[in-house]
Specification:
Keywords: FAD, Flavoprotein. The protein is an alpha+beta fold. It is about 30% helix and about 25% strand. The protein has 3 domains: about 70 residues, 2-Layer Sandwich (Alpha-Beta Plaits); about 55 residues; about 25 residues, no CATH class. Strand 2 and strand 3 form a beta hairpin. The longest helix is centred in the last third of the chain and has 14 residues.
Length: about 190
Amino acid sequence: LGVLTEISMKVLPRPRASLSLRREISLQEAMNEIAQWQLQPLPISGLCYFDNALWIRLEGGEGSVKAARELLGGEEVAGQFWQQLREQQLPFFSLPGTLWRISLPSDAPMMDLPGEQLIDWGGALRWLKSTAEDNQIHRIARNAGGHATRFSAGDGGFAPLSAPLFRYHQQLKQQLDPCGVFNPGRMYAEL
């Protein structure tokens, strides 16, 4: 257990306008457009590729949201998609297989793995439902400049640590949690 002696919070007002759009486009088109949009001052607060469509959330001032809506195009949809995504209630999350959370650079290419992928955070977060071997997923994520964590179905979802890095983790855990009460075995069975 710990005590917080000082904290800082950043509080932002709710956006004046919020709008969700859906565009049926290919994954490659979506990734190209996302890369272009990230270079522009657009009020985009969410980008997700799912079910052969790009989902876009715009939030900000009324004028900027309206202008972005005209520029980006697409069909206006209810905003409940984002809550379903956040709560993992989309049909994707019910598919068979192990759920993996893969963090990558937003411009990383698609990974050649069996299974289904949902792309969030403008490409930086990839959810994967797959039956592929753990070490294969870890290797491909690492080669793409990221890392993979098994999010469901069993223990040991974190990428294996090298011997020096494992010793460092042990020493850090011993210093911060000498009694071993914080999440024993959560990340690695040995910690």
